[in-house]
């Protein structure tokens, strides 16, 4: 097997771990000229005896383990806070935000959508800033700025102010690399905080206090990040000189690859003409419309069943637990059954589809049945998480990967923009049109991911037949080529 052949069954949890590891190296390995000068100065002053000793695999693992122990918790907490910001808007709504800010018609839906306009528009500028500024300081600055925006949310008095703050928060969070599975855990954290604030008796309305508390905590957290996140390995105050040297050697090793960073337009064109690209994009868009809708309207849906605002915040906690458990189970299943990912995604979507039908058709008097259907509907998130490894696993060629990842991300944002518009305030408390929309989206997602899997399987079979007919097998040298998956005859797709 060449390095371009993809092992089937790579689960999304592995994909997320890989993202975290890349995030660590991005933070530690800022490649500006200034950091290179710092590294040169450090090496020039370093005791030669420290550099002379060879670096064993065990020592390298110990240093990496130390990095993991410090950076992974910092990154995960930051991502949870970012995810809480996305879901807390729903709890704020049931605590009186709509009334206090005089929202009318579908303005609340636009409050949910406008966040992703900022997220989408600022993603590319954020990527440029990461390349040009000290990564850790930029990261801390963005966390601090979005915390300030959360505090500002508590002061909003109308739709214009609320929409402006939400748009700016979307822009600021674009620089914090997202980890999809974290979103499900955020409902647990936000539910506990919201329930506690619901018991307070102050002059401030609970929804304003909610944003003040979370904003203040995020500001404190940005201080923790400032202390523990360095701009370069040599600035890690908690590393010894030897550990800093090992880090520099790892960074040097990670940068010795032969990947071509220039844009190759034929690869961009190939990506745009590949039907698999648009099937993945369609799936991402359709699967995220329910996400955008539920993130904004989840608490309103539960209060519409007749529960009080305080009880609703508690009832939201199980959704995160159930979604996380389902996500883990599907990932384990996909990792153990080769080339089953698309099939698992399609079949697992039948569960939230059934729940959408039940929420749409069950009588309003069946409060417990509707609540149970609402809970189980949250299994919709696991199929999307499972799909996030497909763009990287099934694409070769630097420019083609960049293009596909950009399209997949745009589809994610557009789906979350459309989601809140599927639910209309005029449909409260039943939101029947919203459930119809969710059902239609899941059907489209099933068709798209099934067609994608079929195309991948057909292409693998075609390549296998051609390889059998060849008397001499030509193996591409993946380490020194920037060919696309279409150009590499040895490439096999994961489905």
Automatic annotation (TrEMBL):
<keyword id="KW-0812">Transmembrane</keyword>
<keyword id="KW-0813">Transport</keyword>
<protein>
    <submittedName>
        <fullName>Allantoate permease</fullName>
    </submittedName>
</protein>
<dbReference type="InterPro" id="IPR011701">
    <property type="entry name" value="MFS"/>
</dbReference>
<feature type="transmembrane region" description="Helical">
    <location>
        <begin position="402"/>
        <end position="423"/>
    </location>
</feature>
<dbReference type="GO" id="GO:0022857">
    <property type="term" value="F:transmembrane transporter activity"/>
</dbReference>
<keyword id="KW-0472">Membrane</keyword>
<dbReference type="InterPro" id="IPR036259">
    <property type="entry name" value="MFS_trans_sf"/>
</dbReference>
<dbReference type="GO" id="GO:0016020">
    <property type="term" value="C:membrane"/>
</dbReference>
<feature type="transmembrane region" description="Helical">
    <location>
        <begin position="209"/>
        <end position="229"/>
    </location>
</feature>
<feature type="transmembrane region" description="Helical">
    <location>
        <begin position="107"/>
        <end position="126"/>
    </location>
</feature>
<feature type="transmembrane region" description="Helical">
    <location>
        <begin position="307"/>
        <end position="330"/>
    </location>
</feature>
<dbReference type="Pfam" id="PF07690">
    <property type="entry name" value="MFS_1"/>
</dbReference>
<feature type="transmembrane region" description="Helical">
    <location>
        <begin position="435"/>
        <end position="455"/>
    </location>
</feature>
<feature type="transmembrane region" description="Helical">
    <location>
        <begin position="138"/>
        <end position="156"/>
    </location>
</feature>
<feature type="transmembrane region" description="Helical">
    <location>
        <begin position="176"/>
        <end position="197"/>
    </location>
</feature>
<feature type="transmembrane region" description="Helical">
    <location>
        <begin position="342"/>
        <end position="360"/>
    </location>
</feature>
<feature type="transmembrane region" description="Helical">
    <location>
        <begin position="372"/>
        <end position="390"/>
    </location>
</feature>
<keyword id="KW-1133">Transmembrane helix</keyword>
<feature type="transmembrane region" description="Helical">
    <location>
        <begin position="69"/>
        <end position="95"/>
    </location>
</feature>
